[in-house]
Amino acid sequence: MQVLEGITYEVTNKYKKSVEEYQVMNSENPEKGITIITHWRSGKWFITPMDQDEVAYLQGCFDDEDDLEVTAFEDHAMDYTDDGVSMDYKWFGEWTDEEQDKLVEDFEDDGFFGLEEIGFTEGSYECYIVGGINIEEA
Fold first, then answer.
1. Is position 44 within any domain?
2. How many domains does the chain have?
3. Would residue 29 count as lying in a domain?
4. Residue 4 lies in a domain
5. What pTM did the predictor assign?
6. How far is CA 129 from CA 20, 22, 26, 80, 101, in A?
7. Considering only CA atoms, which of 37, 59, 48, 56 is closest in space to residue 128?
8. Which of 39, 120, 127, 137 sits at a 20 to 30 Å CA gap from 49?
9. Is residue 1 part of a domain?
10. Residue 112: closest CA among 96, 125, 98
């Protein structure tokens, strides 16, 4: 398939368990935070390459089975992610084991809302399809 500028494509992961979301949550202390990594079985996005750099990037990921950062595209929209298979946590700043355990518990009980209730704010968000993509014109 040849990717063209201005055309919307339906993009899905080629292999199971190959979608990763990275959500940074910043604490009230700007030197501390957490990145929550969710691994999904599958997902679907609508991506419209808006310039030749985006066309080349999408085409290259399709042709070479490279990882695709969905959120790198100016015009992207998630349709769904399905069946979260695991979560990982990356900490930045100084955290005790007890603080980490408490934050993971708060997150697992109440999701992002639980972290926001105790003063965390959303930071950057990135989403990747790892190891190959399927593309169809939408």
1. yes
2. 1
3. yes
4. no
5. 0.90
6. 6, 12, 24, 13, 29
7. 37
8. 39
9. no
10. 125
> Span 31-53, mean pLDDT?
96
Residue 49: pLDDT over 90: yes
Which amino acid makes up residue 129?
I
Residue type, 76: H
Evaluate whether 13 touches 133 at the Cβ level (below 8 Å).
yes
Show the tokens assigned to 95.
């955290």
- Where b means 16+ CB within 10 Å and e means fewer, 36-52 reads bbbbbebbbbbbbbeee
- Per the structure, the complete domain to which residue 112 belongs is given by 9-137
Question: Which element (helix H / strand E) includes 25?
Answer: strand 19-26
SS3 70: helix
Amino acid at 109: D
**78 phi and psi, to 5 degrees?**
-80, 135
Q: pLDDT tens, 114-129?
A: 899 999 999 999 999 9
At 92 the three-state DSSP class reads strand
